[in-house]
């Protein structure tokens, strides 16, 4: 018989090893599905790898996909550090996309437009995140539920907009009018979609790390998350920290939407986010809520997403596999996290 | 002597390199009260956790009535007739006394057997004089009554061996007498009892036999506790003699903290009603009282967690305008909370973080919103050294430290800033003799330096030893203040129960 026993300390290498083990477990578990779909497991994963990271173009595509998940991953990581359970990065991303698209459609000098798109998009995301945070601080409403449900509210509000008053008159589809060409984010490498927003995302990660690890706000966020009672006794205004965290988290998620509008789609449509907000939760958990870990975690998920499409074309395995891998990786990670606090011991009749 | 009810033989349990229990032998006979003594970290809790099935021992065996028993979890332990009353109660506050007793006890066809439970409760009440109103919700019970319920719960489940982990830490002196009477009655009827305590006079008064643990090993056995002195037992526990600290005569200066007609409202526990008191420089003021008589509100007001609804407070002659931790700290207040683990520290973060927490926004540890990691580290390292805080370093998870070391860390984080007034609650609760002695010495040293100290406590012996004056709280008021010359356990006890008029 086996049982779990509390650990007195957690080795440092666990932080790195756990996500890797979780990913490996997810890939092994999903290989069963690939086999059921009638493809060779090695071949399928091989196609996935080469299509996502095999050549420079593939790498740029993966990075373009990683960028929004870096932002949402950071949004979730910072929120979860304060134990503000922001499940609403998806809605905050959409709000950021809508707001930045509205601004980007106004004729003005390109650099000004881009700057304003970022500011307004971040503000929109922040404002949305403030809703569940305020409800929690003022009325003790569960933030998991309120932030999650708000996603649907925003999604259908967006649909109502692009099906109705905001529908692009020149196309028959339910999409918004495009932003000005001058507001399109500059492409860094000719012939690819690698836009400036990707660089901003890559810079945002160390900035967030610095904020959490080296500023008094970051200190207050960490302490509030770990022990609000001790924080309050230590003179920290816990409510204010939660609201600040929500603003920061929402702004980061909003920036994910800004990047998708300014750098990838140049307008808003119903499927502008294939669930980047929810993937952000997987990213943040794989990163163990460390902003620096968010980058490799987001790149991994992005590689699975781009790779899955190529694998689907080459082997006939449905591309939905990418979502199965994501979900399995999250579950594996959650189980793996158990082992930071517990170890398995054999008990029963000694040999 | 009858055959042992329970026997633990050669119990060994290691955590990593640390041997928490090293071939410990222990037995309890029916009708026997066994004292289990030892400093924190001596292995008492581990040993009891092994007995209760929470840990599997690396070696050794447990025999119940002479037969080897396999105890893998608390259900096995309960089935074997072992009941445990933990320091922290495991009760559902919104359920009634009877409902709490019936939790986990299957009735017929999924129905709860209320009548059967009630009969059993009355029977236990008759047998041992343990009475409680079965329909009262647990939230309405005093701490002492909750403890009584925990004992009844263990008996209700057929416990023949009862383990009590520091049961008197939460009780007033009169309640302790009641508990002891009940325990003696249970023993007289053939139950075995293991009594874990730091308070040597209690162990001497109650137990038939003692086992003393030190560093995981049995350091000694005392066959006649009543005839053994506390000093002898303390020596067994620590391995060396412990002398009480010397309180030097001091002349108090001007008041450094005053409360004038302070009342509170809208706060969980008992509110304060027109409390006026003061503490002078170089003086230790004790606040005694049965827990739940407004001590919590008093501590919260003085430490800036609660604004009074009426009245005023001054620190070092300045009126307090805003009741917030930062404001009061700036005026020269040092604060040590009642509950180290939940209010004082952040157990999951490095020790250094907890040590700078209350003053993180000040120039000492940050500039313009940016932390100064070098200063934080240096501060923590200096305090760890100065206070001999046993830990691998400032980046150790605070939760990994022992209670005594955590209390030292909390003391260090305040005393490093030379407070003019210090407010502490239950400063040595759960600490062993050595650690408590260290804390007492620090208080006396601060007193000699002219700091005014307010100690809120329930341990009257401790208050009498430390304090220059002792104020007694009763129902949110100060029932009376006695100077150390006039104060005795008896007089304080009378004030604590509201028997003596408003002095």
How would you describe the overall organization of this protein?
The complex is a heterodimer of chains A (351) and B (503). Chain A has 351 residues and is mainly alpha-helical. In chain A, 71% of the residues lie in helices and 3% in strands. In chain A, strands 1-2 form a two-stranded antiparallel ribbon. In chain A, helix 3 (56-81) runs parallel beside helix 7 and helix 3 packs across helix 11 (276-286). Chain A is globular and about 70 Å long. The model of chain A has no long low-confidence stretch (mean pLDDT 92). In chain B, strand 1 (6-15) and strand 2 (18-28) form a beta hairpin. The chains are: A mainly alpha (351), B alpha/beta (503). Chain A binds chain B through residues 1, 3, 5, 8-9, 213-220, 222-223, 226-227, 229-236, 345, 347-349, and chain B through 15-16, 55-56, 70, 72, 303-305, 324-326, 329, 335, 337, 342-349, 353-354, 357-358, 360-361, 366, 369-371, 373, 397, 400.
Write the layout of secondary structure elements.
The complex is a heterodimer of chains A (351) and B (503).
Chain A (H helix, E strand, L loop, with lengths): L1 E5 L7 H23 L4 H13 L2 H26 L7 H16 L5 H30 L3 H21 L32 H19 L1 H11 L1 H6 L4 H28 L10 H11 L4 H25 L5 H21 E5 L5
Antiparallel strand pairs in A: 1-2
Helix pairs in contact in A: 1-13, 2-3, 2-12, 3-7, 3-10, 3-11, 3-12, 4-5, 4-6, 4-10, 4-11, 5-6, 5-10, 7-8, 7-10, 7-12, 8-10, 11-12, 11-13, 12-13
Chain B lengths: L5 E10 L2 E11 L4 E6 L5 H8 L7 E6 L2 E3 L4 H6 L2 E4 L11 H6 L11 H15 L14 H14 L4 E5 L7 H16 L3 E5 L3 H7 L2 E6 L2 E6 L7 H9 L16 E9 L11 E6 L3 E5 L6 H8 L7 E6 L2 E2 L5 H7 L1 E4 L3 H5 L6 H6 L9 E2 L2 E2 L1 H14 L16 H13 L5 E5 L7 H16 L3 E5 L3 H7 L2 E6 L2 E7 L5 H8 L7
Parallel strand pairs in B: 3-8, 3-9, 6-7, 7-8, 13-20, 13-21, 16-19, 19-20
Antiparallel strand pairs in B: 1-2, 1-4, 4-5, 9-10, 11-12, 11-14, 14-15, 17-18, 21-22
């Amino acid at each position: 018989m086996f049982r779990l026993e509390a650990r007195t300390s957690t080795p440092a290498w666990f932080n790195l090893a756990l996500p890797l083990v979780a990913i490996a477990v997810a890939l092994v578990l999903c290989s069963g599905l690939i086999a059921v779909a009638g493809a060779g497991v090695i071949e399928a994963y091989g196609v996935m790898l080469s299509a996502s990271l095999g050549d420079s173009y593939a790498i740029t595509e993966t990075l373009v996909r990683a960028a929004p998940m870096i932002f949402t991953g950071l949004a979730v990581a910072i929120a979860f550090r304060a134990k503000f359970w922001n499940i609403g990065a998806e809605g905050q991303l959409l709000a950021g996309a809508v707001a930045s698209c509205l601004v980007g459609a106004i004729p003005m000098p390109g650099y000004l437009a881009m700057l304003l798109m970022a500011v307004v998009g971040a503000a929109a995301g922040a404002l949305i995140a403030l809703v569940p945070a305020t409800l929690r601080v003022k009325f003790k409403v569960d933030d998991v539920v309120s932030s999650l449900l708000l996603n649907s509210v925003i999604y259908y509000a967006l649909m109502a907009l692009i099906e109705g008053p905001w529908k692009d008159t020149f196309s028959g589809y339910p999409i918004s009018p495009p932003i000005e060409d001058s507001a399109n984010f500059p492409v860094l490498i000719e012939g690819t979609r690698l836009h400036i927003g990707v660089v901003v995302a890559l810079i945002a990660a160390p900035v967030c790390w610095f904020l959490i690890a080296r500023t008094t706000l970051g200190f207050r966020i960490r302490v509030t998350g770990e022990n609000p009672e001790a924080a309050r006794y230590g003179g920290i205004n816990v409510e204010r920290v939660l609201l600040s965290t929500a603003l920061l988290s929402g702004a980061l998620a909003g920036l994910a939407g800004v990047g998708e509008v300014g750098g990838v789609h140049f307008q808003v449509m119903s499927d502008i986010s294939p669930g980047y907000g929810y993937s952000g939760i997987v990213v943040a958990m794989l990163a163990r809520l460390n902003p620096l870990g968010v980058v490799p975690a987001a790149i991994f998920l992005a590689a699975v997403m781009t790779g899955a499409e190529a694998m689907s074309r080459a082997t006939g395995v449905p591309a939905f596999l990418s979502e199965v891998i994501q979900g399995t990786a999250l579950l594996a990670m959650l189980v793996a996290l158990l082992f930071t606090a517990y170890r398995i011991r054999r008990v029963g009749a000694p040999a | 002597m009858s055959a042992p009810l329970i026997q633990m033989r050669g119990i060994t349990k290691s955590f990593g390199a640390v041997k928490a229990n090293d071939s410990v032998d222990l037995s309890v006979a029916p009708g026997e009260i066994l004292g289990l003594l030892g400093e924190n970290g001596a292995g008492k809790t581990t040993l009891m956790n092994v007995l209760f099935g929470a840990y599997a021992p690396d070696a050794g065996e447990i025999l119940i009535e002479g037969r080897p028993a396999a105890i893998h979890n608390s259900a096995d332990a309960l089935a074997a007739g072992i009941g445990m009353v933990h320091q922290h109660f495991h009760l559902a506050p919104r359920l009634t006394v009877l409902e709490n007793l019936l939790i986990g006890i299957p009735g017929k066809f999924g129905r709860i057997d209320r009548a059967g439970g009630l009969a059993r409760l009355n029977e236990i009440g008759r047998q041992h004089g343990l009475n409680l109103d079965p329909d009262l919700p647990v939230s309405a019970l005093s701490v002492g009554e909750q403890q009584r319920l925990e004992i009844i719960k263990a008996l209700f489940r057929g416990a023949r061996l009862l383990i009590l982990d520091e049961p008197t830490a939460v009780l007033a002196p009169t309640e302790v007498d009641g508990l002891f009477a009940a325990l003696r009655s249970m023993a007289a009827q053939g139950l075995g009892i293991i009594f874990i305590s730091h308070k040597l006079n209690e162990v001497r008064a109650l137990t038939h036999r003692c086992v003393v643990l030190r560093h995981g090993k049995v350091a000694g056995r005392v066959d006649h506790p009543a005839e053994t002195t506390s000093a002898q037992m303390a020596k067994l526990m620590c391995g060396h003699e412990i002398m009480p600290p010397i309180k030097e005569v001091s002349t108090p200066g001007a008041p450094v903290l005053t409360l004038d007609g302070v009342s509170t409202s809208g706060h969980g526990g008992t509110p304060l009603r027109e409390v006026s008191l003061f503490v002078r420089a170089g003086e230790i003021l004790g606040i005694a009282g049965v827990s739940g008589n407004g001590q919590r509100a008093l501590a919260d007001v003085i430490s800036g967690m609660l604004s009074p609804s009426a009245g005023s407070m001054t620190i070092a002659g300045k009126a307090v305008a805003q009741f917030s931790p930062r404001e009061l700290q700036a005026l020269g207040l040092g604060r040590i909370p009642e509950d180290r683990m939940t209010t004082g520290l952040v157990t999951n973060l490095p020790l250094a973080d907890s040590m700078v927490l209350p003053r993180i926004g000040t120039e000492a540890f940050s500039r313009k919103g940016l932390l100064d990691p070098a200063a934080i580290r240096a501060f923590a390292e200096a305090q760890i050294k100065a206070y001999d805080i046993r830990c691998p370093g400032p980046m150790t998870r605070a939760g990994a430290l022992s209670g005594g070391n955590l209390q030292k860390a909390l003391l260090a984080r305040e005393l490093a800033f030379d407070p003019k007034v210090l407010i502490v609650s239950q400063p040595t609760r759960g600490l062993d003799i050595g650690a408590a002695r260290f804390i007492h010495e620090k208080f006396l040293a601060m007193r000699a330096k002219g700091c005014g100290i307010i100690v809120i406590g329930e341990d009257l012996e401790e208050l009498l030893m430390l304090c220059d004056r002792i104020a007694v709280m009763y129902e949110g008021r100060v029932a009376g203040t006695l100077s150390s010359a006039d104060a005795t356990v008896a007089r304080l006890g009378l004030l604590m129960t509201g028997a003596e008029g408003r002095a």
